[in-house]
Amino acid sequence: MAPKQRTARVSRNPELIRGIGKYSRSAMYHKRGLWAIKAKHGGAFPRHDPVAKPAAPVEKPPKFYPADDVKKPLRNKHRPKPTKLRASITPGTVLILLAGRFKGKRVVFLKQLPSGLLLVTGPFKINGVPLRRVNQAYVIGTSTKVDISSVNVDKFDDKYFSKESQKKTK
Amino acid sequence: MPFKRFVEIGRVALINYGPEYGRIVVIVDVIDQTRALVDAPDMERSPINFKRLSLTDIKIDIKRVPKKKDLIKAMEAADVKNKWEKSSWGRKLIVKKRRAALNDFDRFKIMLAKIKRAGVVRQELAKLRKTAA
């Protein structure tokens, strides 16, 4: 059975100022209809006996207690995000490369990879810059944009650019 | 040797210094030895030092300190805007402004156009050399 769709619980007591509601305790008691629930169940509010919890497994006392209390480091739940892309760089923007083998070349930006690097291409036929990863810091974004909506770049990600592991079978 | 462009009421001038740099204005009154009252259709009438003005050849027919409406009418009658934009000085300023506002892509297009033009010139020159030799 699908669970009932519950609308978000809204308070029936509008807030005049933080901490002060419009209606008094007795007015709210009446508004919430607690009197009707009580009447339905013969004068007393219905109670449910607590659900019997399964017996917790018996924990054996530890065999060894360390002599000194050692503090455990806090858990780091930090998950790095890809670098924030500059607003001037959108898919199809012409970029100017500032460093590396192809410095000074104007290239077309395709997409940002999960590592944060930019996937870029010459296109190769035009200026000899292949599909390449480039750091946002070494790039100038121009205002010229090319329409690449018909280009599918889904299959390219950081794994595509990893070095091939040499498996030599002798 | 004699002067041709005079400071007079109706002389069109170019502001060459200050916040209003590059604006075309008309001298509507002379305040004293150093300052004039200038006015243009899209600015408030204000005093300005003569040193900040460059006089042009254009002169319009107005009375001393005309009302804004009359100034605009006189400027339309004398066709100041078109005369300025067609004059060689005016054209040079327009080109300067356009060059300053170029895009990286625009500069690329200009480079290709220059190469093409130079190619055409070289071909013609080669033809002339052949007939002269």
TrEMBL record, chain A:
Q: Which SUPFAM superfamilies match?
A: Translation proteins SH3-like domain
What's a Gene Ontology MF term here?
structural constituent of ribosome
- Annotated Gene Ontology cellular component terms: ribonucleoprotein complex; ribosome
* Chain intervals with Basic and acidic residues compositional bias: 60-72
Domain Large ribosomal subunit protein uL6 N-terminal stretches = 3-61
A GO biological process this protein is involved in? Answer: translation
Q: Which CDD domains match?
A: KOW_RPL6 (cd13156)
| This protein's UniProt keywords | Ribonucleoprotein, Ribosomal protein
Could you tell me where the Basic residues compositional bias lies? 73-84
Region annotation (Disordered) maps to 52-85
What's the family? Belongs to the eukaryotic ribosomal protein eL6 family.
PANTHER family, sorted: 60S RIBOSOMAL PROTEIN L6 (PTHR10715), LARGE RIBOSOMAL SUBUNIT PROTEIN EL6 (PTHR10715:SF0)
What protein name is recorded for this chain? Large ribosomal subunit protein uL6 N-terminal domain-containing protein
Q: Which organism is it from?
A: Medicago truncatula (Barrel medic)
TrEMBL record, chain B:
Q: Which GO terms describe its molecular function?
A: mRNA binding; RNA binding; structural constituent of ribosome
Member of which family?
Belongs to the eukaryotic ribosomal protein eL14 family.
Q: Where is the Large ribosomal subunit protein eL14 domain?
A: 45-117
Q: Which organism is it from?
A: Medicago truncatula (Barrel medic)
Checking Gene3D superfamilies in the record gives: 2.30.30.30, 6.10.250.2270
What Pfam families is this protein classified in? Answer: Ribosomal_L14e
Q: Which PANTHER family match?
A: 60S RIBOSOMAL PROTEIN L14 (PTHR11127), LARGE RIBOSOMAL SUBUNIT PROTEIN EL14 (PTHR11127:SF2)
Q: Which SUPFAM superfamilies match?
A: Translation proteins SH3-like domain
Write down the superkingdom of origin: Eukaryota
Protein's name in the database: 60S ribosomal L14-like protein
